[in-house]
Amino acid sequence: MSSATVGPSRRRLPSQARSRERVERILDAAARLVVSNGVDGLTTRSIAETAGLPVASLYQYFADKEAVLLALCERDMAEMDDQVATDLAALTDLTIATMVETAMRAFVAVYHRRPAFMQIWMRGRANPAIYDYGRHHNRRIAANLLAFGVDAGLLGTDRYGDEEMTAIAELAVEVGDSAFQLAFEHDPRGDEFLISQAIALVSGYLERITSGR
Fold first, then answer.
1. What is the architecture, at CATH level 2, of domain 72-213?
2. CA–CA dist 59, 136 (Å, integer)
3. Per-residue confidence at 123, pLDDT binned at 50, 70, 90?
4. What is the pLDDT of residue 212?
5. What is the 3-state secondary structure (H, E, C) of 164-191?
């Protein structure tokens, strides 16, 4: 993720309730169109029409359709972060396996609520901003899960140093992300067998890494 420098998209941030409502209408309309017509079929005019707004209103907040897609990714990834945090906080049986499964199932839950996301993430990455933001998000997930695992006593740096553990966490997240792309490639609900295999793959890798502690 080249994106230690990547932050929120450069759209105008709405400060009034009416503006925030319009932005949500735009994003919801774009998400519906992605599900029905795909990423390639999306246009600013179709988004505005579906949202019930003039095209000029859309351009008040977004420069083009790529900016809308990036904003959708940002919104959905923020929802994923919240879901992971909520589900991990509710865990009572803390192991590497339960931590990994809880986190990855949290992502699946959001994919089901936000079916446009995986299409955008798989097919919209020709947009460098989407690609960079996604990689930045993966790094953030890795850092958060590593911190959670260390605090829970599941992961530590007695065998590997801090930099190595960071690399291990990032690799685990990237492997899970790639496996989920395959699982959701043809089925918006995901192939349950591939989802389960992805969870087992990441869990097994981290359990092997920590087995000598």
1. Orthogonal Bundle (1.10)
2. 26
3. confident
4. 52
5. HHHHHHHHHHHHHHHHHHHHCCCCCCCC
